[in-house]
Amino acid sequence: MDLITYLGTTNELAQAWHSIFASFPERYIDSLGDLVYFDWYAACFISDPTHAAMWGNYGDGHKGICLKFRAEEKPGQSPIIKMRGIVGSYIGPTGQGSTYGDLSLQFQKMNYVDKLAEIDFFRSIGRVTVGALKSEWYRDYQGRISSCADDVFGKKDDWHQRYWAAFHEMTATKLSDWRHEEEYRLMLTSVLGTFQEAKDRKLVYGFTDLEGLIFGIRTPLEDKVRIVNIIANKCAEQGRKSFEFSQASYNARSGKIEL
Fold first, then answer.
1. What is the mean pLDDT of the segment spanning 223-228?
2. Angstrom distance (rounded) from CA 227 to CA 201
């Protein structure tokens, strides 16, 4: 009905009013998500580099290359990799800036489900100050307090644990349609908005952690030569004696991509 009404409206003022009456409620509901969890960013990895659809979707139609990373594994823990990035900030006589250091990031294995979990919005508002929560969200005009406030402020430590557990579960869950990716993620998030600028979330990995490269079936020869020369120079600079190169190819007998 909204679509039919809008299609039949040619007056610009009427269209503007329509956006307020018909579109605003939906946009308002969508924007409530910004009050729940902090911004987060992901770098995505796969465990199987021979999946044809992955090369087609993410590998520039088999013309790209796949980077193979070495992860550090410890008993009972998720694999980790160290990267260099922002670890803090400072304010001094010359102004303010960021401090850089090593970040140990865990590879989160994705969970694939048939239905995404629902979020109890009024018990999950994590980006609003305590004062604003009490005055604008949990108290009505008669001064009565919502029962949601008891869950949030009753046992803060328990609430914080539930909140962050739900956050991590949300960031590591996708619908089962994506199960074929067998994805792992490295996650970045900050309650201080540290990574809002794209340049601030461009982390630097150690060359020693880049175990090898896999050329796609259609990677141009000139690209391979250029890449091999770059790697050779880096190996010479760091005294590295070996580096793994692989070539993806299609096996007509098995109908699968092999390395």
1. 97
2. 25
Judge contact between 198 and 39, C-beta under 8 A.
no
CA 7, CA 4: separation in Å to the nearest integer?
5
Nearest CA to 97 out of 206, 205, 199 is that of 199
Rounded CA gap, 99 and 247, in Å? 40
Q: Give tens-digit pLDDT for 84-130.
A: 999 988 888 888 888 999 999 999 999 999 999 898 999 999 998 88
Stretch (H or E) spanning 46:
strand 40-46
Phi, psi for 84 (deg, rounded to 5): -100, 130
Q: Name the CA dihedral angle for 10, 15, 21, 22, rounded to a multiple of 10 degrees.
A: 70
Question: In terms of residues, how long is the chain?
Answer: 259
Per the model's pLDDT, the better-predicted residue between 75 and 8 turns out to be 75
Strands 95-106 and 80-92: antiparallel
Give the residues across from 139 on adjacent strands.
145
3-state helix, strand, coil in the chain (%, to 5): 40, 30, 30
The b-or-e profile of 91-118 (16+ CB within 10 A means b, else e) is eeeeeeeeeeeebebebbebeeeeeeee
Tell whether the model's pLDDT for residue 244 goes beyond 90: yes
| Residue 193 phi, psi dihedral angles, 5° rounding | 70, 30
Q: How far apart are CA 80 and CA 107, in angstroms?
A: 6
The CA distance from 1 to 18, in Å, is 12
**What pTM was computed for the model?**
0.82
DSSP summary character for residue 94: T
- Could you read off the pLDDT of 58-69 as tens digits, one per residue? 999 999 999 999
Residue 95, helix vs strand vs coil: strand
